[in-house]
Amino acid sequence: MIFVGDLHGGYPSLLYHIVKRAVTNEHIIQVGDWGLGFAPLTDDIQALQRINAFLKERDIKLYIIRGNHDNKWYWTNGRKLGLTHVLLVEDYEVLTIEGQRILFIGGGISIDRSSRTIRKDYWPDEVFVYRKKALIHACRESVDIVVSHIAPASCWPYVLTPVVEHYINREQIAGKDLKTALLSEREQMDAVLAYVAKKGLKEWYYGHYHQSVTTHIQNISLRCLDEGELYYRR
């Protein structure tokens, strides 16, 4: 099982890695910010179809959650695209992969949202939504791994960076409260962690913050993947 960090449209590097290392018969999980929505719809779909054919030849299954830099439309309509080896995994979906029950939860806030254009490079429904009933239903059995785009507040990163503070100040001038929104989404993801921890959780993988860092909470390993990072789980 291979976990992949944010790609922001840079999927050719992932395909190159697959060819260079002769990867076959594998499961690849990407933690959001694939970059779906920035190109015209037909171009994105054609790219997914080409990737699907590429992976099919190598018996590789690719699972992608939505990040803040993705158009949620693709996940709502993903099953209609006829892809066999690329799965756009919806929020609170649980899949069994290599004997592990994996819970997927996408979404997050773009810190630079005020600088972006709605429905061109920013989608207001990008956010992570805490849905308690969906979480309870998803976790009616044990959960071994969680894959999300953002992280719980109780793990790294622990503080807001100067770049984030810059955008917080920009939104504050415009009468908006980015800081509260960012803290709230991570606190809500903490609620997910608290619940899933009772269901046998062992590992959590996330992206968004563009650094490679592993932290531990009790017996749970939480790994942040750097942009474009490939992590082989064995």
UniProtKB/TrEMBL annotation:
* InterPro entries reported for this sequence: Calcineurin-like_PHP, Metallo-depent_PP-like
Q: Which residues form a coiled coil?
A: none
All copies of domain Calcineurin-like phosphoesterase, residue ranges:
2-210
Going by the entry's taxonomy, the superkingdom of the source organism is recorded as Bacteria
Enumerate the CDD domains for this protein: MPP_superfamily (cd00838)
Protein name from the UniProt record: Metallophosphoesterase family protein
Which organism does this record belong to?
Chitinophaga rhizophila
Q: Top-down, what is the taxonomic lineage of the species of origin?
A: Bacteria, Pseudomonadati, Bacteroidota, Chitinophagia, Chitinophagales
